[in-house]
Amino acid sequence: MSTRANSSRERILATAESIILQQGFAGTTIDEIIARSAITKGGFFYHFSGKTELARALIDRYIDNDTEVFSALSEQADKLSEDPLQQALIFLNLFTEMVAGMTELHPGCLAAAFTYETSQFDEEIRLRIDEGMRAWRDMIAERLQSIVVKYPPKMDVSVESLADMFTSCVEGGIILAKAYDDNQALIDQVQNYRSHLRLLFEPAEKAA
User: Fold this and answer.
1) 206: left (phi over 0), alpha (psi -120 to 50) or beta
2) Helices in the chain by DSSP H: which ranges?
3) Which of 103, 150, 164, 196 is least surrounded by CB atoms within 10 angstroms?
4) Phi first, then psi: what are they for 144, rounded to 5°?
């Protein structure tokens, strides 16, 4: 595929994602996407056979992009410390720094938006969302398991549930940020998760 074709496809995807996050998948029409992405109808159908194929491409793009961001932040955190707990705490700080550096309100989570409209999608899309979120869980759980080995938690905890809590804090924080029109709400929720990890794993003498 040519660079121009790639550019047109990416413009369609970026435009569609922006509209869907504002008004939902069901409330978004192909004609609206075409008009706002400044492309012809033929150009749209050159890349996508319809809304279902567009939805598959959107969720793949969104999950892949977020996974890439999480991986990059993880690699950066791992370079700054060899201690598993400190690596996790640094990762969360790096995430909040990234959000703090945004010049606009966080646009929202496409995976969550699609989850709210499951009746609009086929099983393939639902499974892709499931796989994506489980991949995020596995990434955090692997890090948490390394912490548990070195720092026994102060109470019984499920590593998988604690990993899911990261996603819950991010998704809940995005909702609050949109409701309050302030990215600080998202930052606060992730920092609360960071504090929870410290209280759960950090040795008493170090926490003091």
Assistant:
1) alpha
2) 3-23, 30-36, 41-47, 51-80, 84-100, 110-116, 123-150, 159-180, 184-201, 204-207
3) 103
4) -65, -35
| Dihedral over alpha carbons 69, 145, 194, 77 (to 10 degrees) | -40
Instruction: Please name the helix (run of DSSP H) or strand (run of DSSP E) that holds residue 152, with its range, or none.
Output: none
What residues have CB less than 8 Å from 41, skipping those under 6 apart?
Answer: 30, 31, 34
CB atoms within 10 A of CB 106: 19
pLDDT tens over the chain, length 208 residues: 444 457 899 999 999 999 999 999 999 999 999 999 999 999 999 999 999 999 999 999 999 999 999 999 999 999 999 999 999 999 999 999 999 999 999 988 898 888 888 888 888 889 999 999 999 999 999 999 999 999 999 999 999 999 999 999 999 999 999 999 999 999 999 999 999 999 999 997 665 4
Cα→Cα distances 168→10, 90, 137, Å: 29, 19, 11
Query: What is the reported pLDDT for 5?
Result: 53
**Rounded Cα gap, residues 62 and 88, in angstroms:** 23
Residue length of the chain = 208
